[in-house]
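Aim 2 progress update. The chain analyzed this quarter is reproduced below.
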Amino acid sequence: ENPFRDFHLVYVPYCTGDVHAGDRVATYQWLGSRPTHHRGAHNLGLFLPRVAATFPEAERVFLAGDSAGGFGVALNLDRVRDAFPRARVAGVDDSGPPVQPAGDRWATWAAAWGVRFPPECTAACATSIDVAIDAYRRRLGDVRVAVVSFENDLVIRTFMGHDAQGYGVRLRALADRVDATWASARYFITP
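Predicted structure tokens:
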């Protein structure tokens, strides 16, 4: 009864420290000068033509990821949809909630990683994750998206720089906003 029983699985490895969204080499000072290749978006751009050519008759495509991979789903689902124009594409973002991080973290990450945003939203998306959500909502149209988050996710809330209460409030507000404004998206929060 598994709905994915006849599907093929393609795994995109993660080793770039940029939630699959960057396209920049940054040099950090840590035990000396260390170049870091934030090339997750670039790498996905290399994978997609190969995967699309391997499955040219694909009728359904699911992009799924958790944690950094969940953020990767949110930031790349439009690219997957574009690579499979004849397929019905959907995404499952597990534990990559687009909650606005504390302070200037989002802008710092976007600049350091060289995050690839939709062309119509480069500057604004680089400073506000809320603006980025709206840009992706417009780009994705009726593509089905599910976001699953743990209300007390210590790893993600620490990554985002929030305490437990503040993270929970932001997460519920985000879920309400997504559910109210994005007809083809659903947000699920579990304790």
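The first helix runs from residue 40 to 54. Residues 23 and 42 are 6 Å apart (CA to CA). These observations will guide the mutagenesis experiments scheduled for the next reporting period.
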